[in-house]
Design a protein that fits this description.
heterodimer; A: mainly alpha; two-stranded antiparallel ribbon; 14 helices; 2 strands; about 75% helix; about 0% strand; globular; B: mainly alpha; 11 helices; elongated
Amino acid sequence: MKRARVALPRVGGAPGYVVRRLLQAVPVILAIVALNFLLLHLAPGDAAQVLAGEAGSASPEYMAQLRERFGLDQPLWLSLLVYMKNVLSLDLGFSFRHNMPVLDLILQRLGPTILLMGVTLVLSVGAGMALGLLAASRVDGWLDTFISILALISYATPLFWIGLMLIVVFSIKLDWLPTSGMETVAAFHEGWARVADIARHLVLPAVTLSLFYMALYARLMRAAVLEQAGMDYVATARAKGLSETRITLTHVLRNAILPVITMAGVQMGALLGGSIVVETVFAWPGLGLLAYQSLFARDLNLLMGIFFLSASLVVVANLAVDLLYTVLDPRIQAA
Amino acid sequence: MIDVARRFLRSRSAMLGLSILSVVIVVAAAAPVVFPGSPFRRVDQPLLPPFGAYLFGTDVLGRDVAAGIAHGARTSLMIGVLATAVAVAVGTVVGGVAGFYGGRPDDVLMRVTEFFQTIPTFLFAILLVAILTPSTQSIVIAIAVVSWPAVARLVRGEFLAMRGREFVVACVCLGMSDRRVIFRHILPNCLSPIVVTGSLIVATAILVESALSFLGLGDPNTMSWGFMIGAGRTFLRTAWWLCTVPGVAILLTVVAINLLGEGLNDTLNPRLRNR
Protein backbone atom coordinates (compact mmCIF):
# COMPACT_ATOMS: atom_id res chain seq x y z
CA MET A 1 0.00 0.00 0.00
CA LYS A 2 1.36 3.39 -0.88
CA ARG A 3 1.75 5.69 2.07
CA ALA A 4 1.75 9.46 1.88
CA ARG A 5 5.41 10.27 1.37
CA VAL A 6 5.32 13.80 0.03
CA ALA A 7 4.12 16.60 2.27
CA LEU A 8 0.97 17.51 0.42
CA PRO A 9 -1.30 20.16 1.89
CA ARG A 10 -3.00 18.55 4.86
CA VAL A 11 -6.71 18.69 4.54
CA GLY A 12 -8.61 17.13 7.40
CA GLY A 13 -11.29 14.47 7.34
CA ALA A 14 -12.33 11.87 4.83
CA PRO A 15 -12.72 14.15 1.76
CA GLY A 16 -9.24 15.53 2.46
CA TYR A 17 -7.80 12.05 2.40
CA VAL A 18 -9.52 11.34 -0.89
CA VAL A 19 -8.14 14.54 -2.39
CA ARG A 20 -4.62 13.74 -1.18
CA ARG A 21 -4.74 10.25 -2.64
CA LEU A 22 -6.05 11.61 -5.94
CA LEU A 23 -3.19 14.10 -6.11
CA GLN A 24 -0.69 11.31 -5.55
CA ALA A 25 -2.04 9.43 -8.54
CA VAL A 26 -1.30 12.31 -10.91
CA PRO A 27 2.53 11.96 -11.07
CA VAL A 28 2.15 8.21 -11.58
CA ILE A 29 -0.07 8.75 -14.64
CA LEU A 30 2.36 11.36 -16.00
CA ALA A 31 5.26 8.95 -15.49
CA ILE A 32 3.40 6.26 -17.41
CA VAL A 33 2.96 8.62 -20.36
CA ALA A 34 6.64 9.57 -20.21
CA LEU A 35 7.57 5.89 -20.15
CA ASN A 36 5.45 5.31 -23.25
CA PHE A 37 7.21 8.19 -24.96
CA LEU A 38 10.59 6.69 -24.08
CA LEU A 39 9.54 3.32 -25.50
CA LEU A 40 8.33 5.01 -28.67
CA HIS A 41 11.86 6.26 -29.22
CA LEU A 42 13.45 2.96 -28.22
CA ALA A 43 11.69 1.16 -31.03
CA PRO A 44 13.80 0.45 -34.08
CA GLY A 45 13.15 2.93 -36.86
CA ASP A 46 11.30 6.20 -36.79
CA ALA A 47 8.79 6.98 -34.04
CA ALA A 48 6.32 8.07 -36.73
CA GLN A 49 6.50 4.58 -38.23
CA VAL A 50 5.57 3.12 -34.86
CA LEU A 51 2.67 5.53 -34.56
CA ALA A 52 1.49 4.61 -38.03
CA GLY A 53 1.17 1.02 -36.85
CA GLU A 54 1.59 -1.78 -39.33
CA ALA A 55 0.85 0.59 -42.17
CA GLY A 56 4.31 0.25 -43.66
CA SER A 57 2.72 1.53 -46.81
CA ALA A 58 1.61 4.76 -45.14
CA SER A 59 1.95 7.66 -47.54
CA PRO A 60 4.72 10.21 -46.93
CA GLU A 61 2.04 12.87 -46.48
CA TYR A 62 0.39 10.88 -43.72
CA MET A 63 3.75 10.31 -42.02
CA ALA A 64 4.51 14.03 -42.19
CA GLN A 65 1.08 14.75 -40.74
CA LEU A 66 1.71 12.29 -37.91
CA ARG A 67 5.11 13.84 -37.19
CA GLU A 68 3.52 17.22 -36.91
CA ARG A 69 0.53 16.15 -34.84
CA PHE A 70 2.69 14.27 -32.34
CA GLY A 71 5.37 16.95 -32.43
CA LEU A 72 8.05 14.55 -33.63
CA ASP A 73 9.63 17.22 -35.80
CA GLN A 74 10.23 19.34 -32.67
CA PRO A 75 13.10 19.11 -30.16
CA LEU A 76 12.75 16.11 -27.86
CA TRP A 77 11.43 17.95 -24.78
CA LEU A 78 8.79 19.80 -26.81
CA SER A 79 7.87 16.58 -28.50
CA LEU A 80 7.38 14.99 -25.06
CA LEU A 81 5.03 17.81 -24.06
CA VAL A 82 2.98 17.47 -27.25
CA TYR A 83 2.85 13.70 -26.77
CA MET A 84 1.70 14.14 -23.17
CA LYS A 85 -0.97 16.61 -24.21
CA ASN A 86 -2.25 14.19 -26.85
CA VAL A 87 -2.28 11.14 -24.63
CA LEU A 88 -3.79 12.95 -21.66
CA SER A 89 -6.57 14.26 -23.87
CA LEU A 90 -6.98 10.60 -24.81
CA ASP A 91 -5.89 11.09 -28.40
CA LEU A 92 -4.08 7.77 -28.78
CA GLY A 93 -3.82 7.66 -32.53
CA PHE A 94 -5.41 5.43 -35.13
CA SER A 95 -5.18 1.70 -35.73
CA PHE A 96 -5.05 0.80 -39.39
CA ARG A 97 -5.43 -2.87 -38.74
CA HIS A 98 -8.82 -2.35 -37.12
CA ASN A 99 -9.58 0.82 -39.04
CA MET A 100 -10.70 2.77 -36.01
CA PRO A 101 -9.24 5.14 -33.39
CA VAL A 102 -7.21 3.33 -30.73
CA LEU A 103 -9.32 4.82 -27.94
CA ASP A 104 -12.63 3.55 -29.38
CA LEU A 105 -11.09 0.15 -29.92
CA ILE A 106 -9.88 -0.05 -26.33
CA LEU A 107 -13.14 1.20 -24.84
CA GLN A 108 -15.00 -1.41 -26.85
CA ARG A 109 -12.86 -4.17 -25.33
CA LEU A 110 -12.74 -2.74 -21.81
CA GLY A 111 -16.10 -4.18 -20.75
CA PRO A 112 -15.28 -7.88 -21.11
CA THR A 113 -11.94 -7.41 -19.32
CA ILE A 114 -13.55 -5.57 -16.41
CA LEU A 115 -16.22 -8.28 -16.21
CA LEU A 116 -13.56 -11.00 -16.14
CA MET A 117 -11.38 -9.19 -13.61
CA GLY A 118 -14.31 -8.25 -11.40
CA VAL A 119 -15.64 -11.81 -11.25
CA THR A 120 -12.11 -13.11 -10.64
CA LEU A 121 -11.58 -10.63 -7.84
CA VAL A 122 -14.84 -11.52 -6.11
CA LEU A 123 -14.26 -15.22 -6.59
CA SER A 124 -10.65 -15.25 -5.41
CA VAL A 125 -11.17 -12.93 -2.44
CA GLY A 126 -14.45 -14.59 -1.42
CA ALA A 127 -13.36 -18.19 -1.79
CA GLY A 128 -9.87 -17.40 -0.52
CA MET A 129 -11.25 -15.89 2.69
CA ALA A 130 -13.66 -18.76 3.23
CA LEU A 131 -10.94 -21.35 2.69
CA GLY A 132 -8.52 -19.43 4.91
CA LEU A 133 -11.07 -19.25 7.73
CA LEU A 134 -11.76 -22.97 7.44
CA ALA A 135 -8.03 -23.77 7.33
CA ALA A 136 -7.39 -21.65 10.41
CA SER A 137 -10.17 -23.35 12.32
CA ARG A 138 -8.51 -26.73 11.81
CA VAL A 139 -4.77 -26.09 11.65
CA ASP A 140 -2.89 -29.01 10.09
CA GLY A 141 -6.15 -30.68 9.11
CA TRP A 142 -6.63 -32.07 5.61
CA LEU A 143 -8.06 -28.83 4.27
CA ASP A 144 -5.08 -26.93 5.65
CA THR A 145 -2.64 -29.29 3.95
CA PHE A 146 -4.69 -29.24 0.75
CA ILE A 147 -4.55 -25.44 0.59
CA SER A 148 -0.79 -25.44 1.14
CA ILE A 149 -0.31 -27.90 -1.71
CA LEU A 150 -2.74 -25.98 -3.94
CA ALA A 151 -0.77 -22.82 -3.23
CA LEU A 152 2.57 -24.47 -4.00
CA ILE A 153 1.31 -25.91 -7.28
CA SER A 154 -0.65 -22.91 -8.48
CA TYR A 155 2.36 -20.74 -7.68
CA ALA A 156 4.45 -22.85 -10.05
CA THR A 157 2.05 -23.41 -12.94
CA PRO A 158 1.78 -21.09 -15.91
CA LEU A 159 -1.75 -19.65 -16.11
CA PHE A 160 -2.10 -20.45 -19.79
CA TRP A 161 -1.31 -24.08 -19.13
CA ILE A 162 -3.91 -24.36 -16.34
CA GLY A 163 -6.40 -22.86 -18.80
CA LEU A 164 -5.52 -25.36 -21.53
CA MET A 165 -5.75 -28.30 -19.14
CA LEU A 166 -9.15 -27.10 -17.87
CA ILE A 167 -10.29 -26.95 -21.50
CA VAL A 168 -9.11 -30.52 -22.06
CA VAL A 169 -11.02 -31.77 -19.01
CA PHE A 170 -14.19 -29.68 -18.91
CA SER A 171 -14.74 -28.81 -22.56
CA ILE A 172 -13.23 -31.61 -24.61
CA LYS A 173 -13.60 -34.67 -22.37
CA LEU A 174 -16.70 -33.80 -20.34
CA ASP A 175 -18.22 -31.32 -22.78
CA TRP A 176 -19.73 -29.27 -19.96
CA LEU A 177 -18.49 -25.81 -20.84
CA PRO A 178 -17.63 -23.88 -24.01
CA THR A 179 -13.96 -23.64 -24.99
CA SER A 180 -13.79 -20.06 -26.13
CA GLY A 181 -15.46 -16.74 -26.72
CA MET A 182 -17.79 -14.73 -24.52
CA GLU A 183 -21.15 -15.83 -25.90
CA THR A 184 -22.71 -18.03 -28.53
CA VAL A 185 -23.20 -15.34 -31.12
CA ALA A 186 -25.10 -17.53 -33.55
CA ALA A 187 -27.73 -18.36 -30.92
CA PHE A 188 -29.02 -14.76 -30.67
CA HIS A 189 -29.82 -15.10 -26.99
CA GLU A 190 -31.63 -12.22 -25.37
CA GLY A 191 -32.29 -11.10 -21.82
CA TRP A 192 -31.63 -13.69 -19.15
CA ALA A 193 -30.77 -16.38 -21.68
CA ARG A 194 -27.91 -14.17 -22.83
CA VAL A 195 -26.74 -13.55 -19.27
CA ALA A 196 -26.75 -17.30 -18.62
CA ASP A 197 -24.86 -17.89 -21.84
CA ILE A 198 -22.16 -15.35 -20.95
CA ALA A 199 -21.95 -16.82 -17.44
CA ARG A 200 -21.32 -20.26 -18.91
CA HIS A 201 -18.50 -18.86 -21.04
CA LEU A 202 -17.11 -17.00 -18.05
CA VAL A 203 -16.64 -20.03 -15.78
CA LEU A 204 -13.38 -21.44 -17.17
CA PRO A 205 -11.49 -18.15 -17.70
CA ALA A 206 -12.51 -16.83 -14.28
CA VAL A 207 -11.58 -20.06 -12.51
CA THR A 208 -8.22 -20.19 -14.33
CA LEU A 209 -7.38 -16.65 -13.34
CA SER A 210 -8.67 -17.11 -9.77
CA LEU A 211 -6.90 -20.31 -8.70
CA PHE A 212 -3.56 -18.75 -7.87
CA TYR A 213 -5.00 -15.74 -6.05
CA MET A 214 -7.48 -17.92 -4.21
CA ALA A 215 -4.63 -20.01 -2.80
CA LEU A 216 -2.65 -16.86 -1.98
CA TYR A 217 -5.55 -15.15 -0.17
CA ALA A 218 -6.42 -18.36 1.65
CA ARG A 219 -2.89 -18.53 3.06
CA LEU A 220 -2.93 -14.84 4.00
CA MET A 221 -6.35 -15.16 5.61
CA ARG A 222 -5.24 -18.22 7.57
CA ALA A 223 -2.20 -16.40 8.94
CA ALA A 224 -4.24 -13.30 9.78
CA VAL A 225 -6.99 -15.26 11.55
CA LEU A 226 -4.44 -17.19 13.60
CA GLU A 227 -2.71 -13.95 14.55
CA GLN A 228 -5.96 -12.24 15.56
CA ALA A 229 -7.12 -15.25 17.57
CA GLY A 230 -4.48 -14.54 20.21
CA MET A 231 -5.52 -10.91 20.72
CA ASP A 232 -6.95 -9.55 23.94
CA TYR A 233 -10.21 -8.44 22.37
CA VAL A 234 -10.94 -12.05 21.47
CA ALA A 235 -10.44 -13.06 25.09
CA THR A 236 -12.76 -10.21 26.11
CA ALA A 237 -15.40 -11.32 23.65
CA ARG A 238 -15.12 -14.85 24.92
CA ALA A 239 -15.39 -13.63 28.52
CA LYS A 240 -18.55 -11.79 27.57
CA GLY A 241 -19.95 -15.19 26.68
CA LEU A 242 -20.14 -14.79 22.90
CA SER A 243 -20.24 -17.96 20.86
CA GLU A 244 -17.12 -18.91 18.89
CA THR A 245 -18.97 -18.45 15.60
CA ARG A 246 -20.05 -14.97 16.60
CA ILE A 247 -16.51 -14.06 17.70
CA THR A 248 -15.07 -15.24 14.40
CA LEU A 249 -17.66 -13.67 12.16
CA THR A 250 -18.13 -10.29 13.82
CA HIS A 251 -14.78 -9.63 15.49
CA VAL A 252 -11.92 -11.63 14.04
CA LEU A 253 -13.11 -11.52 10.43
CA ARG A 254 -13.24 -7.75 10.26
CA ASN A 255 -9.62 -7.45 11.35
CA ALA A 256 -8.30 -10.41 9.43
CA ILE A 257 -9.80 -9.07 6.20
CA LEU A 258 -7.37 -6.13 6.04
CA PRO A 259 -4.20 -7.89 4.81
CA VAL A 260 -6.26 -9.69 2.18
CA ILE A 261 -7.71 -6.42 0.86
CA THR A 262 -4.23 -4.85 0.86
CA MET A 263 -2.86 -7.75 -1.14
CA ALA A 264 -5.81 -7.69 -3.55
CA GLY A 265 -5.03 -4.04 -4.25
CA VAL A 266 -1.33 -4.68 -4.78
CA GLN A 267 -2.09 -7.61 -7.08
CA MET A 268 -4.33 -5.62 -9.41
CA GLY A 269 -1.58 -5.06 -11.97
CA ALA A 270 -0.57 -8.71 -11.89
CA LEU A 271 -4.20 -9.73 -12.33
CA LEU A 272 -4.37 -7.63 -15.45
CA GLY A 273 -1.21 -9.23 -16.78
CA GLY A 274 -2.68 -12.65 -16.10
CA SER A 275 -5.84 -11.72 -17.95
CA ILE A 276 -3.82 -11.19 -21.14
CA VAL A 277 -2.75 -14.82 -21.19
CA VAL A 278 -6.12 -16.12 -20.04
CA GLU A 279 -8.02 -14.06 -22.61
CA THR A 280 -5.68 -15.36 -25.29
CA VAL A 281 -6.30 -18.96 -24.27
CA PHE A 282 -10.08 -18.61 -24.08
CA ALA A 283 -10.47 -16.06 -26.92
CA TRP A 284 -12.22 -13.79 -24.41
CA PRO A 285 -12.80 -10.57 -26.38
CA GLY A 286 -11.19 -8.15 -23.92
CA LEU A 287 -8.11 -5.94 -23.72
CA GLY A 288 -5.78 -8.92 -23.32
CA LEU A 289 -6.90 -10.52 -26.55
CA LEU A 290 -6.61 -7.14 -28.23
CA ALA A 291 -3.04 -6.87 -26.96
CA TYR A 292 -2.29 -10.34 -28.32
CA GLN A 293 -3.77 -9.43 -31.70
CA SER A 294 -1.81 -6.20 -31.83
CA LEU A 295 1.37 -8.22 -31.25
CA PHE A 296 0.65 -10.22 -34.34
CA ALA A 297 -0.17 -7.18 -36.42
CA ARG A 298 2.97 -5.41 -35.07
CA ASP A 299 0.63 -2.56 -34.14
CA LEU A 300 2.88 -1.14 -31.42
CA ASN A 301 0.93 2.07 -31.06
CA LEU A 302 -2.20 0.12 -30.16
CA LEU A 303 -0.17 -1.93 -27.67
CA MET A 304 1.11 1.26 -26.08
CA GLY A 305 -2.41 2.65 -25.87
CA ILE A 306 -3.51 -0.54 -24.09
CA PHE A 307 -0.57 -0.23 -21.73
CA PHE A 308 -1.39 3.38 -20.92
CA LEU A 309 -5.08 2.78 -20.28
CA SER A 310 -4.62 -0.40 -18.29
CA ALA A 311 -1.87 1.14 -16.19
CA SER A 312 -4.25 4.02 -15.46
CA LEU A 313 -6.94 1.49 -14.66
CA VAL A 314 -4.62 -0.11 -12.12
CA VAL A 315 -3.89 3.27 -10.54
CA VAL A 316 -7.61 3.93 -10.24
CA ALA A 317 -8.23 0.47 -8.83
CA ASN A 318 -5.48 0.98 -6.25
CA LEU A 319 -7.16 4.23 -5.33
CA ALA A 320 -10.49 2.46 -4.93
CA VAL A 321 -8.91 -0.17 -2.69
CA ASP A 322 -7.32 2.53 -0.54
CA LEU A 323 -10.67 4.23 -0.13
CA LEU A 324 -12.35 0.94 0.66
CA TYR A 325 -9.66 0.48 3.26
CA THR A 326 -10.66 3.67 5.07
CA VAL A 327 -14.21 2.33 5.29
CA LEU A 328 -13.06 -1.02 6.64
CA ASP A 329 -10.47 0.42 9.00
CA PRO A 330 -11.29 3.99 10.07
CA ARG A 331 -7.91 4.29 11.83
CA ILE A 332 -6.16 4.66 8.46
CA GLN A 333 -7.38 8.20 7.78
CA ALA A 334 -5.64 9.55 10.82
CA ALA A 335 -2.30 8.17 9.65
CA MET B 1 29.30 -23.20 7.49
CA ILE B 2 29.31 -26.99 7.99
CA ASP B 3 26.38 -26.51 10.32
CA VAL B 4 24.46 -24.63 7.63
CA ALA B 5 25.24 -27.31 5.07
CA ARG B 6 24.07 -30.02 7.45
CA ARG B 7 20.83 -28.20 8.17
CA PHE B 8 20.27 -27.79 4.44
CA LEU B 9 20.87 -31.48 3.77
CA ARG B 10 18.38 -32.40 6.48
CA SER B 11 15.59 -30.22 5.06
CA ARG B 12 13.31 -32.58 3.16
CA SER B 13 11.69 -30.02 0.86
CA ALA B 14 15.06 -28.55 -0.07
CA MET B 15 16.44 -31.97 -0.96
CA LEU B 16 13.37 -32.79 -3.05
CA GLY B 17 13.75 -29.47 -4.87
CA LEU B 18 17.46 -29.99 -5.33
CA SER B 19 17.05 -33.46 -6.80
CA ILE B 20 14.35 -32.39 -9.30
CA LEU B 21 16.40 -29.37 -10.30
CA SER B 22 19.54 -31.51 -10.72
CA VAL B 23 17.66 -33.70 -13.18
CA VAL B 24 16.58 -30.61 -15.14
CA ILE B 25 20.15 -29.30 -15.16
CA VAL B 26 21.54 -32.64 -16.34
CA VAL B 27 18.91 -32.81 -19.11
CA ALA B 28 19.76 -29.26 -20.17
CA ALA B 29 23.49 -29.97 -20.16
CA ALA B 30 23.13 -33.23 -22.06
CA ALA B 31 20.71 -31.86 -24.67
CA PRO B 32 23.27 -31.23 -27.45
CA VAL B 33 24.75 -34.70 -26.92
CA VAL B 34 21.57 -36.73 -26.62
CA PHE B 35 19.61 -34.71 -29.18
CA PRO B 36 22.23 -33.37 -31.57
CA GLY B 37 21.18 -30.95 -34.25
CA SER B 38 18.44 -28.37 -34.17
CA PRO B 39 15.32 -29.20 -32.12
CA PHE B 40 13.36 -27.52 -34.92
CA ARG B 41 14.47 -30.31 -37.26
CA ARG B 42 11.87 -32.70 -38.67
CA VAL B 43 12.63 -36.27 -37.60
CA ASP B 44 9.62 -38.41 -38.45
CA GLN B 45 5.92 -38.40 -39.31
CA PRO B 46 3.87 -35.71 -37.59
CA LEU B 47 1.78 -36.34 -34.46
CA LEU B 48 3.21 -39.71 -33.44
CA PRO B 49 1.89 -40.50 -29.94
CA PRO B 50 4.31 -40.61 -27.00
CA PHE B 51 6.07 -43.71 -25.63
CA GLY B 52 6.58 -45.14 -29.12
CA ALA B 53 9.73 -44.62 -31.14
CA TYR B 54 9.98 -41.20 -29.50
CA LEU B 55 9.62 -40.81 -25.75
CA PHE B 56 7.23 -37.85 -25.97
CA GLY B 57 6.06 -38.35 -29.56
CA THR B 58 6.32 -35.84 -32.38
CA ASP B 59 4.53 -32.57 -33.04
CA VAL B 60 2.56 -31.36 -36.04
CA LEU B 61 5.69 -30.72 -38.10
CA GLY B 62 7.26 -34.07 -37.16
CA ARG B 63 9.66 -32.58 -34.63
CA ASP B 64 10.80 -34.69 -31.68
CA VAL B 65 9.01 -33.37 -28.57
CA ALA B 66 11.64 -34.85 -26.22
CA ALA B 67 14.39 -32.95 -28.05
CA GLY B 68 12.33 -29.78 -27.66
CA ILE B 69 11.94 -30.43 -23.92
CA ALA B 70 15.70 -30.95 -23.49
CA HIS B 71 16.67 -27.88 -25.50
CA GLY B 72 13.85 -25.90 -23.88
CA ALA B 73 15.35 -26.69 -20.48
CA ARG B 74 18.52 -24.90 -21.57
CA THR B 75 16.53 -21.84 -22.65
CA SER B 76 14.43 -21.69 -19.48
CA LEU B 77 17.37 -22.09 -17.11
CA MET B 78 19.59 -19.70 -19.01
CA ILE B 79 17.00 -16.93 -19.24
CA GLY B 80 15.94 -17.49 -15.63
CA VAL B 81 19.49 -17.20 -14.32
CA LEU B 82 20.59 -14.33 -16.57
CA ALA B 83 17.49 -12.21 -15.93
CA THR B 84 17.79 -12.83 -12.19
CA ALA B 85 21.47 -11.87 -12.20
CA VAL B 86 20.67 -8.55 -13.87
CA ALA B 87 17.65 -7.92 -11.62
CA VAL B 88 19.62 -8.70 -8.45
CA ALA B 89 22.52 -6.49 -9.53
CA VAL B 90 20.28 -3.52 -10.35
CA GLY B 91 18.05 -4.05 -7.32
CA THR B 92 21.02 -4.33 -4.97
CA VAL B 93 22.60 -1.11 -6.21
CA VAL B 94 19.33 0.84 -6.10
CA GLY B 95 18.25 -0.56 -2.75
CA GLY B 96 21.76 -0.25 -1.32
CA VAL B 97 22.15 3.40 -2.28
CA ALA B 98 18.62 4.22 -1.05
CA GLY B 99 19.13 2.45 2.27
CA PHE B 100 22.69 3.65 2.88
CA TYR B 101 22.26 7.30 2.07
CA GLY B 102 18.61 7.76 3.06
CA GLY B 103 17.04 11.21 2.69
CA ARG B 104 16.56 12.57 -0.78
CA PRO B 105 18.19 9.76 -2.83
CA ASP B 106 16.10 7.28 -0.87
CA ASP B 107 12.91 9.24 -1.60
CA VAL B 108 13.59 9.49 -5.32
CA LEU B 109 14.73 5.87 -5.75
CA MET B 110 11.82 4.46 -3.76
CA ARG B 111 9.38 6.55 -5.78
CA VAL B 112 10.80 5.00 -8.95
CA THR B 113 10.67 1.53 -7.40
CA GLU B 114 7.03 1.99 -6.36
CA PHE B 115 6.19 3.20 -9.84
CA PHE B 116 7.61 0.04 -11.36
CA GLN B 117 5.56 -1.98 -8.92
CA THR B 118 2.34 -0.14 -9.76
CA ILE B 119 2.36 -0.56 -13.53
CA PRO B 120 1.03 -3.86 -14.86
CA THR B 121 4.39 -5.60 -15.07
CA PHE B 122 3.58 -8.42 -17.46
CA LEU B 123 2.01 -6.04 -19.98
CA PHE B 124 5.10 -3.85 -19.66
CA ALA B 125 7.36 -6.85 -20.30
CA ILE B 126 5.32 -7.69 -23.42
CA LEU B 127 5.61 -4.11 -24.64
CA LEU B 128 9.37 -4.07 -24.04
CA VAL B 129 10.00 -7.31 -25.91
CA ALA B 130 7.72 -6.24 -28.76
CA ILE B 131 9.51 -2.91 -29.08
CA LEU B 132 13.04 -4.30 -28.76
CA THR B 133 12.07 -7.14 -31.18
CA PRO B 134 11.97 -10.66 -29.71
CA SER B 135 15.39 -12.12 -28.89
CA THR B 136 17.01 -13.78 -25.89
CA GLN B 137 18.60 -10.47 -25.00
CA SER B 138 15.37 -8.46 -25.06
CA ILE B 139 13.56 -11.13 -23.03
CA VAL B 140 16.29 -11.04 -20.38
CA ILE B 141 16.09 -7.24 -20.28
CA ALA B 142 12.29 -7.23 -20.05
CA ILE B 143 12.21 -9.78 -17.22
CA ALA B 144 14.98 -7.98 -15.34
CA VAL B 145 13.18 -4.65 -15.70
CA VAL B 146 10.04 -6.02 -14.09
CA SER B 147 11.85 -8.03 -11.37
CA TRP B 148 14.35 -5.66 -9.79
CA PRO B 149 11.92 -3.65 -7.61
CA ALA B 150 11.40 -6.56 -5.22
CA VAL B 151 15.16 -6.86 -4.69
CA ALA B 152 15.56 -3.11 -4.28
CA ARG B 153 12.94 -2.96 -1.52
CA LEU B 154 14.45 -5.91 0.28
CA VAL B 155 18.02 -4.61 0.10
CA ARG B 156 16.93 -1.14 1.17
CA GLY B 157 15.27 -2.59 4.24
CA GLU B 158 18.37 -4.61 5.12
CA PHE B 159 20.67 -1.64 4.61
CA LEU B 160 18.45 0.60 6.72
CA ALA B 161 18.65 -1.93 9.53
CA MET B 162 22.45 -2.28 9.16
CA ARG B 163 23.15 1.43 8.78
CA GLY B 164 22.99 2.17 12.49
CA ARG B 165 24.78 -0.97 13.67
CA GLU B 166 28.00 -0.49 15.57
CA PHE B 167 30.31 -2.20 13.10
CA VAL B 168 29.09 0.07 10.32
CA VAL B 169 29.51 3.19 12.42
CA ALA B 170 33.00 1.94 13.31
CA CYS B 171 33.87 1.51 9.63
CA VAL B 172 32.68 5.04 8.88
CA CYS B 173 34.69 6.40 11.81
CA LEU B 174 37.79 4.65 10.51
CA GLY B 175 37.43 6.80 7.41
CA MET B 176 36.55 3.99 5.01
CA SER B 177 35.12 5.00 1.67
CA ASP B 178 31.36 4.57 1.24
CA ARG B 179 31.94 2.06 -1.51
CA ARG B 180 34.11 -0.10 0.73
CA VAL B 181 31.61 0.04 3.61
CA ILE B 182 28.74 -0.88 1.28
CA PHE B 183 30.38 -3.71 -0.61
CA ARG B 184 32.82 -5.16 1.89
CA HIS B 185 30.94 -4.80 5.14
CA ILE B 186 27.18 -4.31 4.76
CA LEU B 187 26.46 -6.33 1.63
CA PRO B 188 28.02 -9.62 2.84
CA ASN B 189 25.81 -9.37 5.91
CA CYS B 190 22.59 -9.25 3.93
CA LEU B 191 23.56 -11.85 1.38
CA SER B 192 21.29 -14.60 2.67
CA PRO B 193 17.93 -12.84 2.13
CA ILE B 194 19.20 -11.73 -1.29
CA VAL B 195 20.04 -15.33 -2.20
CA VAL B 196 16.59 -16.51 -1.09
CA THR B 197 14.78 -13.77 -3.02
CA GLY B 198 17.02 -14.41 -6.01
CA SER B 199 16.06 -18.06 -6.11
CA LEU B 200 12.37 -17.12 -6.12
CA ILE B 201 12.99 -14.61 -8.91
CA VAL B 202 14.55 -17.37 -11.04
CA ALA B 203 11.27 -19.29 -10.67
CA THR B 204 9.14 -16.28 -11.62
CA ALA B 205 11.45 -15.46 -14.51
CA ILE B 206 10.99 -18.96 -15.94
CA LEU B 207 7.21 -18.51 -15.71
CA VAL B 208 7.34 -15.09 -17.37
CA GLU B 209 9.60 -16.40 -20.13
CA SER B 210 7.20 -19.26 -20.81
CA ALA B 211 4.25 -16.85 -20.99
CA LEU B 212 6.13 -14.51 -23.34
CA SER B 213 7.11 -17.29 -25.72
CA PHE B 214 3.58 -18.75 -25.46
CA LEU B 215 2.33 -15.41 -26.83
CA GLY B 216 4.82 -15.71 -29.69
CA LEU B 217 7.41 -13.34 -28.22
CA GLY B 218 10.14 -15.92 -27.76
CA ASP B 219 13.45 -15.86 -29.54
CA PRO B 220 12.56 -17.40 -32.93
CA ASN B 221 15.88 -19.28 -33.03
CA THR B 222 15.71 -21.03 -29.66
CA MET B 223 13.33 -23.77 -28.59
CA SER B 224 11.37 -23.03 -25.45
CA TRP B 225 8.66 -24.71 -23.42
CA GLY B 226 6.23 -21.81 -23.74
CA PHE B 227 6.62 -21.84 -27.52
CA MET B 228 5.91 -25.58 -27.62
CA ILE B 229 2.67 -25.11 -25.67
CA GLY B 230 1.65 -22.20 -27.87
CA ALA B 231 2.33 -24.20 -31.03
CA GLY B 232 0.55 -27.28 -29.70
CA ARG B 233 -2.59 -25.67 -28.41
CA THR B 234 -4.45 -25.86 -31.72
CA PHE B 235 -4.12 -29.64 -31.49
CA LEU B 236 -5.44 -29.90 -27.95
CA ARG B 237 -8.26 -32.14 -29.11
CA THR B 238 -6.15 -34.63 -31.06
CA ALA B 239 -2.65 -34.49 -29.59
CA TRP B 240 -2.85 -33.88 -25.83
CA TRP B 241 0.89 -34.53 -25.27
CA LEU B 242 2.00 -31.45 -27.20
CA CYS B 243 0.76 -29.14 -24.44
CA THR B 244 0.86 -31.47 -21.48
CA VAL B 245 4.53 -32.48 -21.55
CA PRO B 246 6.12 -29.01 -21.70
CA GLY B 247 3.61 -27.77 -19.10
CA VAL B 248 4.63 -30.52 -16.70
CA ALA B 249 8.28 -29.64 -17.36
CA ILE B 250 7.65 -25.99 -16.39
CA LEU B 251 5.62 -27.04 -13.35
CA LEU B 252 8.31 -29.42 -12.06
CA THR B 253 11.16 -26.97 -12.62
CA VAL B 254 9.41 -24.08 -10.94
CA VAL B 255 8.19 -26.19 -7.99
CA ALA B 256 11.74 -27.48 -7.55
CA ILE B 257 13.20 -23.98 -7.46
CA ASN B 258 10.52 -22.78 -5.05
CA LEU B 259 11.15 -25.73 -2.72
CA LEU B 260 14.87 -25.05 -2.90
CA GLY B 261 14.27 -21.38 -2.10
CA GLU B 262 12.13 -22.30 0.88
CA GLY B 263 14.79 -24.73 2.05
CA LEU B 264 17.48 -22.06 1.69
CA ASN B 265 15.31 -19.67 3.65
CA ASP B 266 14.92 -22.17 6.47
CA THR B 267 18.63 -22.92 6.65
CA LEU B 268 19.98 -19.41 6.19
CA ASN B 269 17.46 -17.74 8.51
CA PRO B 270 16.95 -20.41 11.16
CA ARG B 271 15.34 -17.95 13.53
CA LEU B 272 12.40 -17.51 11.17
CA ARG B 273 11.89 -21.20 10.74
CA ASN B 274 9.09 -21.61 13.21
CA ARG B 275 7.07 -18.67 12.08
